[in-house]
Amino acid sequence: MKKKIMAKQMNSGFGESDSNFNSLTVVDNGHVYFTLSSHQIDTHGRIYRYEPENQTLVFLADLGDLTGEQGKKTIPHGKSHSAFFSYQGKYYFATHYGYYQGNNNKEEPAPPPEGYHPYTGGKIFSYDEKSNAFTLLASAPAEEGIITMNMDTNKGLLYCLTWPKGYMMVYDINKNEMKNIGQVSRGGEIGAGDNYFCLCRSFAIDPRDNTAYFTNPDGTIYSYHPDEGVVKTVEWAHLKKDMFGVWDPHEGGHQGYNWRYLVWNEKHQKFFCVHGKSGYLFTFDPLKKELILLDRICSEYCRQN
């Protein structure tokens, strides 16, 4: 007998939205936060909260209003790729932009239409649910969105990677300081030829020693510890696996050997990661120096083909 799961539709009233990118988050009090995104030239993303206790969907803010860019004809903050991270009673998130163009299977920024201004840079915000107050904390460089963000909850650090050039940035919440580490993926997603690298979409932050990890599409894994402030190559592991397929890291249309998404599992004391194109699940334990392939978690059709 098949088990049925009943769903209830909640209408946001945001007809211009077309997507949600990784922002759906159940926070510590059970509320569900998410950002609805849009790729339209005059539309900023919008933030919502779902309250399960009364089954209410609450509109919280328009990113254009939060950034002060509503109606100013800048390339809009159309998206958010970040979850909502909880730290000392507040939630933290970042903005991104969705106005781009395709070029030879690659996505790259589109020139602003006549009368419009370039993107001002992705923003980091905090939100206090008790006071319903948003605070702008920091910005990425101009014309760089924040394509992924994760938090070191032990030290209060936000790790960001920007798009399209791939700047790694670390924001210290307690010091209110942003550190730009520089480009970590060659020329990023606007690099030409061998300088093109599709950017990683997930930072792994090990809560045991506060080391952050990320990948590049050639399969290289990198580490960064805030006390050292230096990006290092992980020598004991590599993601260029035959099981993941054969990918040219300098071509568009895929993410090469990057891991796509991952979660830390407290019980098993390791990360569970997935490779995007193959759908292969694997574990990553930096302290034990173990990277173990498990199984493909894609559809039966993909497994057979």
Entry summary:
This protein has 305 residues and is mostly beta strands. Helices cover 3% and strands 39% of the residues.
Overview of this structure, please?
With 305 residues, this protein is mainly beta. It has a domain at 25-199. 3% of the residues lie in helices and 39% in strands. It is built from 2 helices and 22 strands. It has helices at 63-67, 300-304; strands spanning 25-26, 32-36, 46-51, 56-62, 85-87, 90-94, 100-103, 106-109, 123-128, 133-139, 145-152, 157-163, 167-172, 177-183, 204-206, 211-215, 221-225, 230-233, 259-265, 270-275, 280-285, 290-296. The strands form 6 sheets. The protein has a 4-stranded antiparallel sheet. Strands 5-6-9-10 form a 4-stranded antiparallel sheet, with no helix packed on it. The longest helix has 5 residues, at 63-67. The two termini are 29 Å apart. The model has no long low-confidence stretch (mean pLDDT 97).
